[in-house]
Amino acid sequence: xxxxxxxxxxxxxxxxxxxxxxxxxxxxxxxxxxxxxxxxxxxxxxxxxxxxxxxxxxxxxxxxxxxxxxxxxxxxxxxxxxxxxxxxxxxxxxxxxxxxxxxxxxxxxxxxxxxxxxxxxxxxxxxxxxxxxxxxxxxxxxxxxxxxxxxxxxxxxxxxxxxxxxxxxxxxxxxxxxxxxxxxxxxxxxxxxxxxxxxxxxxxxxxxxxxxxxxxxxxxxxxxxxxxxxxxxxxxxxxxxxxxxxxxxxxxxxxxxxxxxxxxxxxxxxxxxxxxxxxxxxxxxxxxxxxxxxxxxxxxxxxxxxxxxxxxxxxxxxxxxxxxxxxxxxxxxxxxxxxxxxxxxxxxxxxxxxxxxxxxxxxxxxxxxxxxxxxxxxxxxxxxxxxxxxxxxxxxxxxxxxxxxxxxxxxxxxxxxxxxxxxxxxxxxxxxxxx
Length: 435
What we know:
Blueprint: H1 3-27, E1 29-30, H2 36-51, H3 71-111, H4 117-129, H5 131-136, H6 143-157, H7 164-179, H8 185-198, H9 200-222, H10 230-240, H11 271-284, H12 286-301, E2 317-318, H13 326-355, H14 363-377, H15 393-423
Antiparallel strand pairs: 1-2
């Protein structure tokens, strides 16, 4: 297949991804779009533009805080600068549609680092059709922007080149970590394999560029008195994810068990309170909590239905095309059908590729495996909501296709060996030689 023909096929897949995303945001009506997390991000952006202070407070003047990570509010602040008070929301959603479509292309580029063109195109198609990724652009939440930044960093990092590639890759992943601070694990786990592959200087440049934004953010936080800190959100999140089965007593509160727990919010208000309450509960039934954290939470994280939402929807929407538009209904059905086998294949591939001690696979493959493995592990302490794995979902699709491709190739090789053995006809006993 010619290069131009391949480019056309990739363009078609990207266009399909863009059409699905734009079709969703253009027809679906998000109910109360600026509530809970979304409202806090929007308020931080507003305070940045109007008062020059990073804060989610509604008082004037707002006291500085660090409760929310600053990356995504910075994007919303730029949208406010260019779109104004009335146009910033539409501008932000349009930007996320563009980033979502670009993510499809980046997914293809990452897969091409070590997979064939058909396999990479398949991974990009899964990324384009994924309802989880399609609806992400409709919400004022971090996932769409974080996914693009993380994937851009991985694509830059896994391609040979000069000094500018690891520096740009570090900057992109560093911005992803500013949007979601748990992603600081990515440059840390990629440092050693990058060192082995490209040398200490490039690895050091990548790690420095990736950690510099978070370092600057933390220096800002320690240099002034803050009304609320990110540590408060961390302890609260860990306490919210500690309930086995996401139920406290009443199943009607499934997904939100902390709302009926009389020991909340003191349970998650401090590290001492968290240790005291959670420690006593674990002591009462250690095996139940061990099973919850080690076995059940990973399954929940890699599941389909959101824990705090409905199906793939974080917030309820009206006029959803996934409920009435035949093409989007069909894509939803197809992706849900493929979800379990794709996740199982990706999980197996991630564990195998992340190990890679003897360098049996390319650096890009190991990087993808490490991101998926550690990206899952860092979310085990909190609510096991599949929404949190959105930034690594395209990488999961790449690994799922990689595993399926390896299985197909292995079956073909085995079949060819069998055919080769059968084609060798043993000489009949007593037949004279023709030599």
